[in-house]
Amino acid sequence: MDHITFMVFVSGGLSRLFSVCEDSPPSSCIMLHPGALFSLLYMCALCNAQSNSGTPVIQLRLAGEKRKHYEGRVEVFYKGEWGTVCDDDFSIQTAHVVCRELGFMDAASWSPSAKFGRGEGRIWLDNVHCTGGEKSLAQCESNGFGVSDCKHSEDAGVVCNQKRIPGYKFIRNQAHGDEGLTVQVEDVRIRATYSQRKRVPITEGFLEVKDGGKWRQICNEEWTEMNSRVICGMYGFPGEKRFNSRPYKLLAKRRKKNYWGFSVNCTGNEANLSECKLGREIELKGNNSCGQGMPVVISCIPGRAFASSISIGFSKAYRVEQPLVRLRGGAMIGEGRVEVLKNGEWGTVCDDNWNLRAATVVCRELGFGSAKEALTGGRQGQGIGPVHMNEVECSGFEKSLTECHFNRESLGCSHEEDAAVKCNVPAMGFKNRLRINGGRNPYEGRVEVLAEKNGTLVWGTVCSDSWGTMEAMVVCRQLGLGFASHAFQETWYWQGDSSADAVMMSGVRCSGTELTLDQCLHHGKHVLCPKGGGRFAAGVSCTQSAPDLVLSAQVVEQTTYLEDRPMYALQCAQEENCLSTSADKADSTSYRRLLRFSSQIHNNGLSDFRPRAAHHSWIWHECHRHYHSMEVFTHYDLMSLNGTKVAEGHKASFCLEDTYCDEGIQKRYECANFGAQGITVGCWDTYRHDIDCQWVDITDVKPGDYIFQVVINPNYEVAESDYTNNIMKCRSRYDGQRIWMYNCRIGGTLSSETEETFPGLLTNQLSHR
């Protein structure tokens, strides 16, 4: 006989012990004092929620300083009070039980020592031992509820797998009152009406939640704008807007309704519905469950990048002005390292106290939805320049991150602690119009596009003429596969779909910032591809991380000087075209005036910078006495103030190696003995000022004011996470005998107003493939 033991308080103040039976004959049931009737009804309701006899009734939630909505400090609601779980003997099996009880598939990891902040109140459980198969944390062995010798500095936390359990049904185990339970459902969707379903993105429709494997509506009687704001944020929209309710009322009257049994209470600064509090329970009576109300309708306003050009009132909603916040280094739209503008200079944000709330302010400010994840530890690459903000605290309703409270002193913060975000973006269906086929893994293959031919949509290839890294970057972004690793102009070794061999797209030229391949310049319907498709179709390989090279402006500024060198000492350099063309007619006893400087190039990205060329194609350079793996690695130029070149551009080739590395990082690449070439993450390659060809020949330059420019990886031969910082410009003054180099700046580090004095510094538009 299944039974539950519990205590009932009756009039008279005495306590009596009862046993209430499930599925037992009437003769075995105990008659209760009338005063205990309510308690009986309460406990009987709990019987259905419990899987095993004698198991205490609990509810769980994830709380604390979160960086993802599916992680947090484990909190247990027991006997009308929330408490925490001590990390003693906590294990991944215990984490699995917690996550499954909350409706997630399983746990990804767990964290000791109050990683998500210290809880308050009781520490309900200690020395918890789970096998992983329990249906509730209450079924695991422990010291017993409330028996603990722990402090809140030992509170356990978990990171769950964000996938939900199919068919998961939420059961409220507690009777009444505001328990602070969070919303736990399998899925959420905005169900557009028939006339709206072809719109991209879908911004309006009935809200439905999936619970117990069925889609259900929510009654709008207690629904608020703050609730709508959270839903819009989940779907990639920065805010909610008013809508015409009349057509929805007419539709709701005609449809059979299946309401969810709870209301929802969001404050509006939550990043996900799962962080909102569960409201009161609603008595389900079919179509009459919602009284005078109707199902909730959501209407959202899209950000600039996703709004149709004919969107009414759109221009009023978003003013185009100098942004104060931007994202850098991310592979996908809506993700990257957070940078803020202060006193005309861009800088980063330190990750101390960085959380979902602050990340969501950034995302909404930039026209995206709420934050999917608040990233720490330079996980979107390291920035350059100052750290402008530290210990950021946001309410969640600020219009800009710059309005949040923060510690102006960023002492102790380095770029290793740069904060970043991943934002929710609208579902645009980009992946439906493009695919890669025939590769050895899902990250590589021949590029195939869906295009219209004779009135029908068919798959076809892309002409590989002019196909390069920038085009490959857009393909990888559109498919959600990260950065481009390589762009291929021959794909005969990949067996694509033979029915898709015909060329459907040609003349593709991308800037690298487009969201889809069809946003790039191309020939349109008039396909022109002399090579044809088939073996010459365009292909890509993608990767989740990329390098990011940055030249040290300070080193250039500090090491610049002039040297007059005789031609007889420059024979090797002349053979390698390191001098101006006037040197071809110069006498061997004449001198050349050389602007010398050192180049120190850092890899601030998340993967090593490796040359595209294989060992066998490297070229031996007699001047430097080693092999060069990239024939055009940098451009050095001296230009007039209006951007005209006054000293012939020198295309420097390099042997790439790790000259120095940050503490704790091992050198991996060296030029000697035909060694592997590249620049490791956290290392830098230094070409000293006294090396041959590390100069610009200014023999024919007249005295005056100039701009000195260095561009790394100018032909985009190797993919990087950010090309805007590959260019450096300095102001320089030459009086005929001496040269001054000052105000050296990396591209993208200044505001647009400041950078007007440096033509082309905002965008690296320097090369033509």
UniProtKB/TrEMBL annotation:
Its cofactor is Cu cation. Its main location: nucleus. One of its GO terms (biological process) is chromatin organization. InterPro entries: LOX-like_protein, Lysyl_oxidase, Lysyl_oxidase_CS, SRCR, SRCR-like_dom_sf. It holds the Pfam family Lysyl_oxidase. SMART domains: SR (SM00202). Gene3D superfamilies: SRCR-like domain. GO terms for molecular function: copper ion binding; protein-lysine 6-oxidase activity. It is found in: Chromosome; Endoplasmic reticulum; Nucleus; Secreted, Extracellular space, Extracellular matrix, Basement membrane. One of its GO terms (cellular component) is nucleus. It catalyses: L-lysyl-[protein] + O2 + H2O = (S)-2-amino-6-oxohexanoyl-[protein] + H2O2 + NH4(+). The lysine tyrosylquinone cross-link (LTQ) is generated by condensation of the epsilon-amino group of a lysine with a topaquinone produced by oxidation of tyrosine. PANTHER family: LYSYL OXIDASE HOMOLOG 2, LYSYL OXIDASE-LIKE-RELATED. Belongs to the lysyl oxidase family. This is Lysyl oxidase homolog. It comes from Pleuronectes platessa (European plaice). The lineage of its organism: Eukaryota, Metazoa, Chordata, Craniata, Vertebrata.
